[in-house]
Amino acid sequence: MAAAAATLARRITRSGVLPLCRRLPVWGRAARRPPGLPLAPCRAFSNKKIQVDMNESSGVATMKFKSPPVNSLNLDFLTEFCISLEKLENDRACRGIIITSAIPKIFSSGLDITEMCGKSTEHYTEFWRAVQEMWLRLYSSNMVTLAVVNGSSPAGGCLIALSCDYRIMADNPKYTIGLNEAQLGIVAPFWFKDTFVNVVGQRVAERSLQLGSLYPAPEALKFGIVDELVPEEKLQEKATAVMAQWLALPDHARQITKSMMRKAVLDLLVAHREEDIKNFTSFVSKESIQKSLRMYMEMLKKKKS
Ligand SMILES: CCCCC/C=C\C/C=C\C=C\CC(=O)SCCNC(=O)CCNC(=O)[C@H](O)C(C)(C)COP(=O)(O)OP(=O)(O)OC[C@H]1O[C@@H](n2cnc3c(N)ncnc32)[C@H](O)[C@@H]1OP(=O)(O)O
């Protein structure tokens, strides 16, 4: 596992663009399973920050974020996430993934702000490439991707949910979700914005992005950021039912449709990846942005006392 992580990290950071394997539609994965063979009921693999359980009889993997205190997306987390996605993408038995959190009340706090504070240009480059890689893999996945948002999910956490095919959120107004970058004095990159627009439409996205709005669950439903609210104790049951509904269709039709809907947005980042990294590194290196991020971190810490 450590060797695989090191290899992937090297590939992400050195070669520039990690080959996005199996991006094109895969024809009927499930149909390739040898008929009549008994299937092991469940397989699992776990890294430091993400636990994956694979149910082979349903072809559904559950990916649980388990990086305390708040599942923030640092370089190690992003690398593990990409490796887990790659493993599942290449596993013919896997047709769908449920992405959720093992940390109570938090889905993910978004990008780890400490990765964007006081570091070198090389570090920002490596970090941003990993953020891009995570999104490219998730948004272009052939699998059915279902976000079970069982806690707050600001910024990068919201991006993960938005990149899935369907979002179920726990019906709790204390949990918030949204792209709140503007509140930190930073700007959501164009591909965060495009992903958001594809889910909620231009008007809601524009207003929400300019205001950096974080929506309590009921409002998130109203604006279409999530598809359904479900009592927390019913999330698992609901996720299983939704997944079964999506998996009832032939894979190839769903995959080609998904690819058709998302291709333009994916292609744009692939074509402008290096430029996007340069924009990020020069933006985040500005003293004024560093100051905003430091103040935001201090505000988070003060909030406790
Ligand atoms: C024009 C060109 C443009 C180019 C593009 C340029 C730039 C784009 C750049 C970046 C895009 C970034 C997207 C992001 O994801 S930024 C991250 C945004 N995240 C947040 O705003 C969330 C902040 N956190 C919270 O609101 C709360 O922590 C949360 C609701 C998640 C949980 O609250 P709770 O009360 O349970 O826990 P806390 O006590 O607040 O936190 C515990 C602990 O964790 C630290 N922490 C929280 N979030 C983060 C984080 N995102 N990164 C790093 N650390 C985080 C918090 O400080 C506490 O630490 P400690 O006090 O215990 O040490």
From TrEMBL:
Localization: Mitochondrion matrix
* Catalytic activity annotation: (3Z)-hexenoyl-CoA = (2E)-hexenoyl-CoA; (3Z)-decenoyl-CoA = (2E)-decenoyl-CoA; (3Z)-octenoyl-CoA = (2E)-octenoyl-CoA; a (3E)-enoyl-CoA = a 4-saturated (2E)-enoyl-CoA
Q: Does the keyword Isomerase apply?
A: yes
**How is this protein annotated for GO cellular component?**
mitochondrial matrix
Task: Enumerate the UniProt keywords alphabetically.
Answer: Acetylation, Fatty acid metabolism, Isomerase, Lipid metabolism, Mitochondrion, Transit peptide
Molecular-function annotations in GO: delta(3)-delta(2)-enoyl-CoA isomerase activity
- According to its UniProt record, the EC number is 5.3.3.8
Q: What single Pfam family name could you report for this chain, choosing any that match? A: ECH_1
A GO BP entry is: fatty acid beta-oxidation
| InterPro entries noted in UniProt | ClpP/crotonase-like_dom_sf, Enoyl-CoA_hyd/isom_CS, Enoyl-CoA_hydra/iso
Q: In which pathway does it act?
A: Lipid metabolism; fatty acid beta-oxidation
Top EC class of this enzyme: isomerase
Its predominant location is mitochondrion
Q: Which PANTHER family match?
A: ENOYL-COA DELTA ISOMERASE 1, MITOCHONDRIAL (PTHR11941:SF45), ENOYL-COA HYDRATASE-RELATED (PTHR11941)
- Can you state the subunit structure given in the record? Homotrimer.
Q: Describe its function.
A: Key enzyme of fatty acid beta-oxidation. Able to isomerize both 3-cis (3Z) and 3-trans (3E) double bonds into the 2-trans (2E) form in a range of enoyl-CoA species, with a preference for (3Z)-enoyl-CoAs over (3E)-enoyl-CoAs. The catalytic efficiency of this enzyme is not affected by the fatty acyl chain length.
Q: Which family does it belong to?
A: Belongs to the enoyl-CoA hydratase/isomerase family.
Q: What is the name of this protein?
A: Enoyl-CoA delta isomerase 1, mitochondrial
What taxonomic lineage is listed for the species of origin?
Eukaryota, Metazoa, Chordata, Craniata, Vertebrata
